[in-house]
Design a protein that fits this description.
The structure holds two protein chains of two kinds.
Chain A (H helix, E strand, L loop, with lengths): L9 H6 L5 H4 L5 H8 L12 E6 L4 E7 L6 E7 L15 H18 L32 E3 L10 H12 L13 E2 L4 E2 L1 H8 L2 H13 L1 H7 L1 H5 L6 H15 L23 H24 L1
Parallel strand pairs in A: 1-4
Antiparallel strand pairs in A: 1-2, 2-3, 5-6
Helix pairs in contact in A: 4-5, 4-10, 7-8
Chain B lengths: L5 E2 L4 E2 L2 E2 L3 E2 L37 H4 L7 E4 L18 E7 L3 E10 L2 E10 L3 E3 L4 H20 L38
Antiparallel strand pairs in B: 1-4, 2-3, 5-6, 5-9, 6-7, 7-8
Classes of the chains: A alpha+beta, B alpha+beta.
Chain lengths: 297, 192
């Protein structure tokens, strides 16, 4: 290998234009964000609400927010880690949990704005087409647009489960059936039955049954928390039905409890100027002493 | 009747032409080569993005609210080709008279030969900014309102008008131990 020119030299760095911070972090898709967030100019300050759905490895985050220059304002949020309060203690990131979280978000929001009596949404969950309609003489339905982030839109994705939950909860989110589980792309047909099964976690129950039959050890390893909480394949649907009912009954968020935290440092505090100067003085003195001692010997 | 001649100039080496220049000559024999009328002629630098500002446009531009009567600056943004103002309006300031979905209508003054016309142009949001020229006036109005309210409460008369810089009052100056030297103009004397 002969001489290879250094690519990242001073000139490179001088000319380099960094991408936006959130793009560098790989968290925001600005192409999508511009189209989601921007309101028509002739609607001036009226907010354009979006339903944000994000999945982490162990949690689901759903929020309703609108954009302002100072920063987006979140008016309502629901997390999957709140579901234990409504009876769902395990499987917090599956399709059924996503549905519950979306439902919780919708009911919470409508409750907050006093619209929950007017817009009940779909109380009998059947996984079928449902679009909220404006009720005459009353405030219009709450409209939000789904914000997926960087998630891939595939048929049967859990993000759409969260959206379905919100829609059945009474929010007006424009959507189509194409990406729900139960949609057959070859025949362009939607099976509400399959979708309903997913909403009630039947796909999880099926897997539980098949594993239990085939391989006990794998079943114990995969569904250890389910077993611990006494959830069997037959209980699953009931668990989610109860959850839906509990959510509809009391969607208000639990008030935050202020924790008393004693301040603790994880690293050393920076020295003051006086301390630094003194430290240098001490080092010089000790070095001088060492030299003198060596000179004597 | 006009004749079109083409003259090939430039070195011809080994039978291959390196430089050809074509000109259209009218009967009168003059060559017309006026400025081209391209819409964005001469805007190579005007509409270019400045150093290290390329790429995605920040959302603040899309989130600012414009109302009728707002005073706005027009500055063409090369990253968005739609709804660009003509180069003549780049750097001009005008008043909003109309707001549509993605653009605003602005009334701008344009000098055409000997007169100034108030023109109405439609410009997309990306090429428009709130002008700060109005801000100082608005600020002063608010301050005056406060002063007036305060004066009403306390009964102390308030000075609302802006005063130009007044001549300096008499004051003492340190000379640093130096004796001051009086400097006067020499009295006029007629010199032949």
């Amino acid at each position: 290998m002969g001489f290879v020119k250094v690519v990242k030299n001073k000139a490179y760095f001088k000319r380099y234009q960094v991408k936006y911070k959130r793009r560098r972090e790989g968290k925001t898709d600005y192409f999508a964000r511009k189209r989601l967030v921007v309101q028509d100019r002739n609607k001036y300050n009226s907010p354009k609400y979006r339903m944000i759905v994000r999945f982490t490895n162990k949690d689901i985050i759903t929020q309703i927010a609108y954009a302002r220059i100072e920063g987006d304002v979140v008016i309502c949020a629901a997390y999957a880690h709140e579901l234990p309060r409504y009876g769902v203690k395990v499987g917090l990131t599956n399709y059924a949990a996503a549905y519950c979280t979306g439902l919780l978000l919708a009911r919470r929001l409508l409750n907050k704005f006093g619209l929950d009596k007017i817009y009940e949404g779909q109380t009998e969950v059947d996984g079928d087409d449902f679009n909220v309609e404006d009720v005459d003489g009353q405030p219009g339905a709450f409209r939000a647009y789904l914000d997926i982030g960087l998630a891939r839109t595939t048929t049967g994705a859990r993000i759409f489960g969260a959206m379905k939950g919100a829609v059945d909860g009474g929010l007006d989110i424009p959507h189509s059936n194409k990406r729900f589980p139960g949609y057959d792309s070859e025949s362009s047909e939607f099976s509400a039955e399959v979708h309903r099964n997913h909403i009630f976690g039947q796909h999880v129950a099926e897997y539980m049954r098949s594993l239990e039959g085939d391989d006990e050890d794998a079943y114990k390893r995969q569904f250890s928390q389910f077993i611990k909480n006494g959830i069997t394949a037959d209980n699953v649907e009931e668990m989610y039905t109860k959850c839906h009912a509990a959510i509809r009954e009391d969607p208000t968020p639990k008030p935050k409890v202020d924790k008393q935290v004693t301040k603790r440092r994880w690293n050393r505090e920076k020295m003051s100027r006086a301390q630094r100067m003194d430290s240098v003085k001490q080092k010089k003195a000790s070095h001088k002493r060492a030299l003198e001692a060596a000179g004597d010997n | 009747m006009c004749c079109v001649t083409s003259s090939a100039s430039g070195q011809t080496l080994f039978g291959h032409v390196t430089n050809t220049f074509f000109s259209v000559e009218l009967c009168s024999g003059t060559i017309i080569m006026t400025n081209t009328k391209g819409y964005r002629r001469g805007t190579r630098y005007m509409f270019s993005k400045k150093f290290r500002t390329r790429g995605v446009i920040g959302l603040t531009k899309y989130l600012t609210v414009y109302k009728k009567g707002d005073i706005v600056d027009i500055k063409g943004d090369g990253a968005v080709q739609k709804g660009m103002p003509h180069k003549a309006y780049h750097g001009k300031t005008g008043r909003v008279f109309n707001v549509t979905k993605h653009a605003v209508g602005i009334i701008v003054n344009k000098q055409v030969k000997g007169r100034i016309i108030a023109k109405r142009i439609n410009v997309r949001i990306e090429h428009v900014r709130h002008s700060k020229s109005r801000l100082s006036f608005i600020k002063r109005v608010h301050e005056n309102e406060q002063k007036r309210a305060l004066a009403k409460e306390t009964g102390v008369p308030c000075q609302l008008k802006r005063q130009p810089q007044q001549p300096r009052k008499g004051h003492f100056v340190r000379s640093g131990g130096v004796e001051p030297e009086l400097v006067e103009p020499v009295p006029w004397r007629f010199i032949a």
